Amino acid sequence: MSVIRKAVFPVAGLGTRFLPATKSIPKEMLTIVDRPLIHYVVEEAKAAGIEEFIFVTSRGKSAVEDHFDQAYELENTLESRGKIDALKELHEWLPEAGTVMYTRQPAPLGLGHAVWCARHLVGDEPFAVLLPDELVLNDVPCLKQLVDAHTKTGGNVLGVFDVPRAETNRYGILDVISDDGSLVEVSGLVEKPDPERAPSTLSITGRYILMPEIFGYLSEQQKGAGDEIQLTDAMARMIGNGPFHGLRFKGERHDCGNVNGFLRANIAFGLTREDVAPSLKEFLSGLPL
Ligand code: G1P
Predict the structure, then answer these.
(1) Running DSSP on this structure, what letter comes out for residue 84?
(2) pTM, entire model
(3) Which ligand 1 atom lies nearest to the CA of residue 205?
(4) Does residue 240 form part of some domain?
(5) Which domain holds residue 114?
(6) Is residue 67 part of a domain?
(7) Is residue 1 assigned to a domain?
(8) How far is the CA of 206 from the centre of ligand 1 (A)?
(9) What residues line ligand 1, using a CB cutoff of 6 Å?
(10) Distance from Cα 172 to the centre of ligand 1, integer Å
(11) What confidence tens digit (pLDDT) does each residue in 162-182 have?
(12) What is the DSSP secondary structure assignment for residue 126, as one 8-state letter?
C-alpha cells in the first residue's frame, strides 16, 4: 500500500483566462489532444498509487463528475456498433466505484480554501494535491517522483522548477536552505512575489504532498496575495514543524492555465502520440515560420 493514498483535485476555478470557452465548459474539461486536462492528472495520480480521488468542485462542474462515471447510452451505442476497443478503453481508465469523491467550494475564496474544503474527506493522513492546469511529460509521472521523495524524507514535498525572474509574480516561490540540485530544503515560501523581492526563482508547480496539519493553518482562513486564502501561506507557516522539501522533478512541465501554454501542451503531447505525431510533424514542418 502506498503511504499517500488520497489526492485532492481543486477544480472549482472560474477559468476566466479561457473565456468564452469556459462560459459553459469547465476549464478542467478543455482537451489536450483528445482527453481533458483533468483526465491526465487523475491518470498521473493513479500511477503514483493514489486510491481515493477527491474533487473540490463548484457550480457548473458536472461535466467533471460525468467524465468519471459510466455513460450507459454511449456504452450501449458503442457495443451495438461493435466498437469494442473504444468501449474497453472507456472502462479501463474509469476509477473503481466508491473511490471518487466530490465536495463543493461554495465561493471562490482561493486555493487554500479549496483544499480546506476537502479536510473531512482527507482526514488525518498525508495527501497529495494536483492542480490540473499543470501537466508534466515524463516516463516517471511527476507525482510518483514526489511520492518516492516523500518516502525518503517524510513531511511536505512540493514539485518545483526554475522560472525566469520576471515571472515570479505568477507563482509560489521558495526560499531554500540547501540544494543538492534535485532536492531542496525549504526555509520560506511566498506567494507571487514581485521579481525584485523574490527570494529565489524556484517556483511551486501544481504538485504537492502535504501533511494533514495544513488543515489547522487553513482553518484560520487568513487572506494573502490577491485577497485570497492561499495554500502557500498556510504551508509557509508549517516550516520548522517537520521536514519540508522541494523536488526538482524530471520532465517537461506545461502550464496549461494560459492560452499559450495550453497550445504548446497540445503540440508537445500530440508529438508523443504515435497515432497523431506523424501528421502533426508534417503540418508543423510545412508552416511558414
Ligand atoms: C497556484 C498557487 C501557486 C503555484 C501555482 C502553480 O497559483 O497558488 O503557488 O505556483 O498554482 O500553477 P494559481 O495558478 O492558481 O494562481
Answers:
(1) H
(2) 0.95
(3) 6
(4) yes
(5) 6-285
(6) yes
(7) no
(8) 7
(9) 111, 131, 133-134, 171-172, 191, 203-206, 230-232, 257
(10) 6
(11) 999 999 999 999 999 999 999
(12) -
